[in-house]
Amino acid sequence: MNRTTYFLFSCLMLVWTSAACSKPNSNSPGESAATSSPAVERITSVGVVKVDAQPVEIPAGGSAEAVVRLTIQNGYHVNANPPTYPYLKATVVELSPSDGMS
């Protein structure tokens, strides 16, 4: 895998984990808006999710497997595929095609 592909794959993983690990900013049913903190900020995957992918060499016309390791900060999680409940979003890894790869 060349540097460009590695970089694109890493960016894709960061975006994907950002969507998967962000928590919605809403009050619980018994909590009023007046008792919530006025300066609550949205949590994103930056600092919560670390992505590590090892370089892979693929012979022309061949295929290979890539190992991507995600380190999720304590207190957060990603869902299974298929997810446990229908309202949860499944974890999916997608690779954007690049020159010479599909």
Secondary structure layout plus pairing:
Elements lengths: L2 H19 L27 E5 L14 E5 L30
Number of helices: 1
Instruction: Encode the helix/strand succession as letters.
Output: HEE
Radius of gyration: 18 Å
Strand proportion, as a percent range, falls in: 5-15%
Report the mean per-residue pLDDT as an integer. 75
Largest sheet: 2 strands, antiparallel
Structural class: alpha+beta
Query: Strand order of the main beta sheet, please?
Result: 1-2
Principal-axes geometry comes out as elongated
Oligomer: single chain
Q: Which bin fits the share of residues in helices?
A: 10-25%
Uncertain stretches: none
Count every beta strand, where a strand is a DSSP E run of 2 or more residues. 2
- How far from one another are the termini? 12 Å
